[in-house]
Amino acid sequence: MKPCRYDVSSHEQSYTVALVDSSVNSDDRAPLPDYSEDGVDLSLIRWSLSLTPLERLQFLQKQIHDILAIRELNART
């Protein structure tokens, strides 16, 4: 899996969080599955759990800000 980058920023700080290949655990045992049996993307859960609670909140707040900006732009048309 190719690493993905998510930009997380707030008024005080800005940084990039990398989603690295988590398909193989640190002990080189059997690869971790990317999806659960019911279709849940486990790589996103692992990525989220790799963040601190503050980083998770900042990421989600940025997503909300972006969604509201898109809604505002769509309302103008």
What is the H/E string? EEHH
The average pLDDT value, as a whole number, equals: 79
Total beta strand runs? 2
- Taken from the alpha-carbon principal axes, the silhouette is elongated
Helical fraction: 40-55%
Biggest sheet statistics: 2 strands, antiparallel
Domains (count):
1
Question: How many H/I helices?
Answer: 2
Give the DSSP E fraction (strand runs of 2 or more residues).
15-25%
Rg computed from alpha carbons, rounded to a whole number of angstroms? 16 Å
Would you tell me the structural class of the helices and strands?
alpha+beta
Extract low-pLDDT stretches: none
Distance between the termini: 39 Å
**Widest sheet, order of strands:** 1-2
Could you characterize what this model shows?
With 77 residues, the protein is of the alpha+beta class. The chain has one domain (4-75). It is built from two helices and two strands; from the N terminus they run ββαα. The chain has helices at 42-50, 53-75, and strands at 4-9, 14-19. A two-stranded antiparallel ribbon has the order 1-2. The termini are far apart.
Which characteristics define this entry?
77 residues, alpha+beta, two-stranded antiparallel ribbon, 2 helices, 2 strands, 42% helix
